[in-house]
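Notebook entry, structure prediction.
Reason for the run: the old model in the group folder had no record of what sequence produced it. Starting over properly, with the input documented here first.
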Amino acid sequence: MKIKKIIPIIFMIISCIHNQNHNKQINNKIFYKDLKTVEKWNKLILDASKKYKINIKLIISLIKIESNGNPCAISKSNAIGLMQIKPSTAGKEVYKYRKIEGQPSKKKLKNPKINIDIGTNYIYLLQYKMLNKIKNKKILRYAIIVSYVGGIGALLKIFSKKQEISMKIINKISPNKFLWYIKTKHPYKQIYKYLIKVNYLYNNINNNIKHQN
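New structure, fully documented this time:
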């Protein structure tokens, strides 16, 4: 095997070992501000942000909360890699959009570049295809975050069984009222805390981060 092919593999193994102990639930503000585990992926994040027209702060926030920058993270529910993508749901949805049969493999989703590209592509589908009828930008961001981790179906059903009615209700309420719905009506009780964590980080990331190397 040539040296050029070996180096990326060695780098990935070292990254996995280095980050293994950091794949823990975030529970304090100091940890939120520590983005060193994510900064190494900034170039890939910026590329995906430009490609899919997704706010770079949202991608960074999701990576931080989902995996803490660990490309080898695998959850109990088989969510894989930096953006904790489930092959059979988000992965399959992106493949369907790209007109590719099947779903991404575990090996592919452990690849940082592929993982970030697929994860950001999924956010694109949520923002521009599935939730694009939501008018309020803040509520749209909330809805994307909630749908990313809990599914769009579970989100819309807390408003109505019919998607069109759900959208009408969402467009009539305030961001705070939307948060109230998530906190009190969503079937997955941990979703509200997840939303608050991601949104807190999103609001505290330097707006100039895209200019960093």
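Summary: The chain has 13 helices and no strands.
The old model has been moved to the deprecated folder.
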